[in-house]
Amino acid sequence: MTKSLAIIDGKSVFYRGYYSMPGLSTSDGTSTGGVFGFASIAIEIIKKLNPDYIAIAWDIKGTSAQKRIDIYPEYKAGRTKPPEDFYTQLPILRELLDAFGWPLYELDGYEADDIMGTFALNASEEGIHTNLITGDYDMLQLISPSTDVFITRTGSTDLVHYHKDTFRDKYGVNVEQFVDYKALVGDSSDNIPGVRKIGPVAAQKLLTAYDTLEGVYDHLDDLKGVQRINLEEDKELAFMSQKLARIFTDAPIKIDWHEADIKNTNFDAIISILKKYEFNSLIRRLPDHMHTSDGVVALTPDRQIDVLEIIDWPEQLMVEGPIVLDVYEDNLWMSMNKKSASFIPLAELDSAMLKVFELATVVSYDSKDLYHKLAGAGIFIKFGDLFDIHQAAFLLNSLNRDRTVSGLFGGEIGDDPASQISALWHIYEEQKSALEANPRISKIAYELDFPLSYILFTMEHHGIKIDKDILAKMSEELGTKYNKLEQEMYSMAGYDFNIASPAQLSEVLFTKLQLPTAGIKKGKTGYSTGQKELDKLRGQNPIIELVEKTRELAKLKNTYVDALPLLADEQSRIHTTFNQDVASTGRLSSTNPNLQNIPIRSELGRTIRKTFITDGDKILISADYSQFELRLAAVLAGDAEMINDFNGNVDIHMKTASEVYGIPMDDVTKNQRRDAKVINFGVLYGMSPHGLSAATGMNFFEAKKFIDKYFELRSPIRKYIDNTIAKAKSDGYVETFYGRRRPTPDALSSNFMIRQAAERAAANMPIQGTEADLMKRAMLEVDKKIGDLGVQVLQIHDSILIEAPTENAEKVSDLLVEVMENIAPELDIKLKVDVNIGHNWGEL
């Protein structure tokens, strides 16, 4: 069998990992995203390609491109220098490579591409097949019968395989023509100029007709117009680009086959490195075996699973301590200690057994999921106390992306229930100790997050009804509107095009209609047509408004109008999933479908909400906190004047406008109040003068002046934001009023954009997180007191939605106001709740 060599384009793969895992760090704040991404790809290479040899090619900083810079001084000019934490991760990567036993090669004057090309040629001469792993499509020119290329994709461990046929499908030319193709088209990422106005289609046609770049220039007389002129004038650039694009395969370097042998892998060292940097999920993904010089070593982590004895289900169940429960294949598994486990078919459970669990402290990996599994067997029960391992993992470190059982355990776990339960015992004991070490987080866990899982289960199980007939009619109407808008845009463009294609839309806007491109972002496929760029073009051409309308129509139609009926059960009820472990602030999120994201301000969004209805004579009651975040911001910032205004029922937006504009409150206009409202809420999210300008129509200088004046008047808010950001940097986390934490490693990033985003998130988290804590407390208190009056069906941001019989409307409304307005007596501010009643969600 032919042996194989895998050569990894080290910096390219590291780049992909770094930018696909922004902010990933260990619990002490050490940045590790690039190393995690690289290690993920490395494991995938071993499992998918099973190479006999592996080597890493690397660009030497500042000197590897010198040979090409000598040809063209502007080669790769303008490339942005990576952030500082990119470089701080390189020593960690070296540790990882040493553990794997993979040699790293670098050479002055030669790029990693050249080293890879040279090694591929050498391997071919020795009868060894080469697989090149890179994120750089330039490497595709090296494809041959003895060399394949695998392209990595940002945010994924997928390796996209390219060979001669798939290359032809992508570029429309043969592999042998790729360098000449690049010579004509150029490459903006490497600053290779190419020929003016020769794009991919033109290059394909030229090379199909004349085979090579030289052939194109031999037949210039066959060409006409601007294309011939550009080719003639840019001939020198074209042949220079050809030199720049071609990978050297004669680098003065040789691979050491002994060093590159896969058998050199040090398994113990790999486990140690992965554990050290908290890559527990990668330990689980390691292949079953790795070779050493002595033979085969099984990949078993240092941490061992306890072997549990499987015993009979006890005739008389007495629970004195915590009990681990889970459902596997229609059996309820139970373990009351770390030595044994027993199971019983769900169908054989009786009420006496269930009564014990209602009084017990139940430890479960995902208690909400456990409730659903039991309900699927017709068993409805509410445990006395809960310890939810999945939610505890989120509370202890919301940045931990792998919260699977094996990821939390940090080692290999068998698929059998006893092994899983044994791991749960280990994790439970560690998490319990960690929570005990932080009483404030422990209080949130035991009093809010853990018990809320039952309420979320009941909400998901109950669901909310939709009117399928109205949705079907809406779908038809939206389809008709979309087609009409489509035809209008075709008329403006002069031809049909795919509105959903960014490339085709860009061609229409910037080439056909000649809209201004100043300040518009440009990528490899042309100018961007994202919403931020369209905002810059508003008013330039009526087609912009039509594009926005069609996008809104398409999104609402595809995401809600057409999708909701497919997700409904036989009773036309939608059962969304509520998540406590997605938003790092602790706020609930909604998925499958996302009912928190239906637009409320647009007419279409309100129409969709009207399709959410009730059964029979029931009604919906919505209780919504008024200006919740602003009130909490005033408390957290200690803004006494703002607190007094809220407690005195002053219109806070009108007063802000009055103070900023220096006019009496009676003279404040609707527009001035609106501007004040925008900044009152926007300041909590770090709104900039540009943001305020875009939201209100002010020019930049007016917006800046408005913000400066605002912070003069609201100096406690300014001080609070500054102090919170300082805490994020000094302590590595921020926290809510009640102690829920969010780690903030990116607040120290040297990348300005990443750091600025982290600072905005840090400033907002204590406010939004405190809001989340209070909403959960309110939901729990409402559940205690509502009894048979109604049932909670949705929680949307600052509101709770109840379905209740019509005759209970007043009682439920009064209860909601009483509970929610008095949920936090420890806060020195008056909370206000607005209640609305309707027969559908759109009426609220």
Description:
The strands form 8 sheets. A 6-stranded mixed beta sheet has the order 3-2-1-4-5-6. Strands 9-12-11-10-13-14 form a 6-stranded mixed beta sheet, sandwiched between helices. A 4-stranded antiparallel beta sheet has the order 25-26-22-27. The protein is 49% helix and 14% strand. The radius of gyration is 31 Å and the shape is globular. It starts with a strand and ends in a 6-residue tail after the last strand. It contains 36 helices and 27 strands. The longest helix has 35 residues, at 752-786. By secondary structure, it is α/β, with parallel strands linked by helices.
In short:
The protein has 844 residues and is of the alpha/beta class. The strands form 8 sheets. The chain has a 6-stranded mixed β-sheet.
Please report the number of helical segments. Answer: 36
* Beta-strand segment tally: 27
| CATH level 1 class label of the domain at 4-167 and 248-257 | Alpha Beta
Named CATH architecture of the domain at 4-167 and 248-257: 3-Layer(aba) Sandwich
- Alpha-beta classification: alpha/beta
Q: What is the CA–CA distance across the termini? A: 71 Å
- The CATH superfamily of the domain at 4-167 and 248-257 is identified as 5'-nuclease
What's the arrangement of secondary structure elements?
Blueprint: E1 4-9, H1 10-20, H2 33-49, E2 53-57, H3 66-71, H4 84-88, H5 90-100, E3 104-105, H6 112-125, E4 129-134, E5 147-152, E6 159-162, H7 164-171, H8 178-185, H9 200-210, H10 213-218, H11 225-233, H12 235-245, H13 257-260, H14 267-276, H15 280-285, E7 289-292, E8 295-298, E9 309-310, E10 323-328, E11 331-335, E12 340-345, H16 351-359, E13 361-364, H17 367-376, E14 385-388, H18 389-396, H19 405-409, H20 417-436, H21 439-462, E15 464-466, H22 468-493, H23 502-512, E16 522-523, E17 526-527, H24 531-537, H25 542-561, H26 563-567, E18 573-574, E19 577-579, E20 589-591, H27 603-609, E21 612-613, E22 618-625, H28 628-637, H29 640-647, H30 652-661, H31 670-682, H32 689-696, H33 700-713, H34 715-731, E23 733-735, E24 741-743, H35 752-786, E25 791-796, E26 799-805, H36 809-821, E27 833-838
Parallel strand pairs: 1-2, 1-4, 2-3, 4-5, 9-12, 10-13, 13-14
Antiparallel strand pairs: 5-6, 7-8, 10-11, 11-12, 15-18, 15-21, 16-17, 19-20, 22-26, 22-27, 23-24, 25-26
